[in-house]
Amino acid sequence: MEFTLHVLFASKGPLPNGDLPPELQDVVKQLKGTLTYRGYALAASFVQRAQVLDHARSDTSGLGYVLPGALGNAEGKDAPRMKVEWRAQGLRLGNQGDGPSTLDVASFRFDLEEEAATKSGTLAKFNTPLSLREGERVVVGTSVVKDHGVVVVLTVRRVK
User: Fold this and answer.
1) Cα–Cα distance measured from residue 45 to residue 43, given in angstroms and rounded to the nearest whole number
2) What is the pTM of this model?
3) Domain ranges in the chain?
4) For residue 32, how many other CB atoms are within 10 A of its CB?
């Protein structure tokens, strides 16, 4: 299975949507109708492949960094970095009939941490079980960090 994870930052004011991948346009439109944020920008994307076996549970994870200044932080050599770490545990295939496959995730964990020279800490963290249909874009979780929203969107698809 191929996992695509997008981390979005949201703002009360408008942000240019030009950097959003086309597959996120519908998600952002729905978010604008649900949340109070008006502007959305892509902070990070991950593509990860994992083997999910019919008879056993699998795990996969990813680690990366958000671009400096993404939340209006200072840029430069002393600017804090934001680390994104995610883990999907207990992966199991569901419906494999004529319809789209489903993937059950016993535990999906997301952590957003700030790494600075003098002080580091967790900015956002959540853990939830999931069930996704192949190709479905799911808002896994939202949080608030430094007056901005953080939205995590996950999609899975079967690859050969």
Assistant:
1) 7
2) 0.87
3) 2-67+79-157
4) 14
